[in-house]
Design a protein that fits this description.
Length: 244
């Protein structure tokens, strides 16, 4: 079993894009990072890249829609580290760019929710016992400004015209999970927050996005390493609160 002094972080969907960069930035702070990836080969390749940079990272096969892999990973982390300090629920899917509420298939919306919402609940519940063993557990749910009902209701907001029923509503639901879980854990050292990384130049954001993955990872990493007096139950972009 590894020494209990070093922080242990698990990042889901971490073999590429934003999750990979979040892993890199956490590892830069001397944290042991477990790269959760649905594709075992891609996870190992991602871990090797960061190991080559001298970081303490390990790959771990984790499909957030598969309960059996979640349970296996939780057991492995418990046996190897006896705790978890940071959980970054980053894994997510867009589900295509044609999601008009009048025509998007219910099956498509369900598929998006399986990863973006139900998967987060499953992973979080499985790892909560280990997060309780940390002196300063942190849960970061990687959400999106597209999940903000306030922003979507404002005709003058930049996101007003981006109406993707499945994706947007899955992130709204994710934010609700953040609020309710933070309330449940308010008398514990665990902090729970949602992060809006903005549109990043990743496979999901494409090259048309405004920000780099490095810029997008900054807020999730900040929330993952909050001090004792840091916020909980909030929604943040560029380290500043944004409306639900």
């Amino acid at each position: 079993m590894q020494s209990n002094d070093k922080k242990i972080a698990l990042v889901t969907g971490a073999n590429k894009g934003l999750g990979f960069e979040i892993s890199r930035q956490l590892a830069k702070q001397g944290i042991t990072v477990l790269i959760g990836a649905r594709d075992e080969t891609k996870g190992k390749e991602a871990a090797e890249k960061l190991q080559a940079e001298g970081f303490d990272v390990q790959s771990i096969k984790l499909d957030v829609t598969d309960t059996s892999t979640i349970e296996t990973v939780a057991k492995t982390v418990e046996e190897k580290f006896a705790k978890l300090d940071i959980l970054v629920n980053n894994a997510g899917i867009l589900g295509g760019r044609e999601q008009l509420p009048s025509s998007v298939s219910v099956a498509s919306v369900k598929e998006i929710f399986e990863t973006n919402f139900f998967g987060v609940i499953s992973v979080t519940q499985a790892f909560l016992p280990l997060l309780h063993k940390s002196p300063a557990g942190r849960i970061v749910n990687v959400s999106s400004g597209l999940g903000s009902l306030t922003q979507h209701s404002d005709p003058n907001h930049a996101l007003y015209d981006t109406k993707l029923l499945g994706y947007n509503s899955s992130k709204t639901a994710l934010n609700a999970f953040t609020v309710t879980l933070a309330y449940e854990l308010k008398d514990t050292p665990i902090k729970v927050n949602s992060a809006d990384p903005d549109s990043c130049k990743t496979d999901m954001g494409t090259d048309e996005a405004t920000y780099t993955a490095e810029q997008g990872a900054d807020t999730p990493v900040w929330l993952a390493t909050l001090p004792e007096d840091g916020p909980t139950g909030g929604f943040f972009n560029s380290r500043k609160p944004i409306p639900w």
